[in-house]
Amino acid sequence: MVETTEAEEELPVETEIFGVSPNQTTAASLSSHIDALKRALHLASSNGTQRQCLEGSSTPVVEQRQKSQYVRNFPSIRQLKLLIGLYFEELNPFFPCIEEQEFMERMEQVRQDLVEDGGGLCLVVRPSSRNFFMLMYMVLAVATYLDSTSHSQKNAAPPGWQYCLMAEEISGRDHHTRLLPAELDLIRYYTVKAIYMVHIEKLTPASHSIAIAIQSAFSAHLNDESTWIDCSKSRKHARRLLWWTVFYVDRRIAQKCWKPYIIRENEFRVGELAVTEEELLSTVFDLQTHIKVEEQLVINRYVQTMIRWARLWAQVWDSMFAVSSSYGKNRAEEIEVLDAKILYAQRETHESLCWDTLFLPTYLATGETDAQIRSRLVAYVRFNLLRLLLRQSWKHTTAADARGSQICLELSNETIEAIVEYMVSQVNPIPFGLNAIECVVECICHLVPHVNKEKSIFSNSLPMSSFEGAIKFLENLSPKLGAARRALDALGEIAEKGWPPSFTSNGQVGGVQEIPCLINTAVDLGQGSFNELFVPDTWSEICFPSLEEGQVRIT
Description:
The chain is mostly helical and 555 residues long. The protein has 21 helices and three strands. Residues 85-326 form the Xylanolytic transcriptional activator regulatory domain.
């Protein structure tokens, strides 16, 4: 008699290599080869008994556990409604992976699964609703982060972390789900989880989560619209939004982590959202429907613009930064070609997504929602930063080029100005706060090589003025958002080490131009908790351009 250890008993009993896959499109997998051989034998045999046996062997048998789980500390119904409303107001217009009406209808059923537990509420999680409840808790996690009041509380854990743990508790108890076809709720869960991890500055878990979302999307045939035969128009539209959100988040996280993206262009066949505009407009019969359709059109246009950005970023990555990139002697020509593509995409952007900082009061006065205004800003900033990346990458600076310097100065200055003006108009800086901080810091990195540069067509004070304005913005935001404090810590460490000669006012080797507003910020503001966005040890390499011949780095 062989005794099993406790560790062995806890291992999942399902295996996958020789099990029959529920995904019928995996024609080259080992299990599919075996199944094909069995079917060939079945066709060659006239034995009915054997036929029945073989047919039965091709059906996956997955034992469905019928045990319910219980999750305590469920929020009150009032708090639940507030958080979910905040999520759909602040995040869903930019990452529309959840269909709001369907989600709210399913939330009404949650009340039936609530029980009293010592004066609080306890949620009964049945196997059939497990994936939806995981998604619900992750929505609550993101919404808690977006709530400005949650950042005023002094907790060691980031806002919303308790809801993330509840979702993990639900997902961690079952192993059999990996053999079942992926549900859309599971794809949504991992996508929203990736977005949440980015918000709390945990890029490695974010990368892992979006990878699982992508694999689940492939398993559910979300990447092939031809398999959605039985779906209605509204469900097809929801699937398109989900797919393109996964597509965009994949490349955004790849950009943040500076790692290869996962989804390749030849691995999917899904219609773009521009195709659905005529279908939506044809459904307008009254004012209420018109308002809803206009809101949906804004979301569609925004997502379509982000799809263009994602594809352009992938081209930049493949051409200049991938391990086997085509980057070589014709670098200047490659930059001009890619820059022209970005400019063309900007010109093709729908007028409802165009941004002009001088028109911000007009956007507000005409009653545009914050989501509409922020959509304008994000589209504007994304393309600007992509052009900056081309002109002055952190590894291959073109700061010595007069035209490149001019473009870098203009784009950095205009982007910083746009972000600062928008954030001044916001009562709650949290929803766009981290994004704004990252973009401003990136602009600083592109701006610093040109501070007091003699060849600049601008007055010597303009780059320094933009730089100081960016630092002032971070300082003003630092009491409300920890990411601003961590960004200042990282920048402050660079200032304490001194600037390379190319940044000095006299241009002579050995000179150091200290930036007064950066000195000792790490000491004054505190280090804050560890994160992956602003790690001080890496910033000295990020912000220093490649030194020209004869220059010496000061340490």
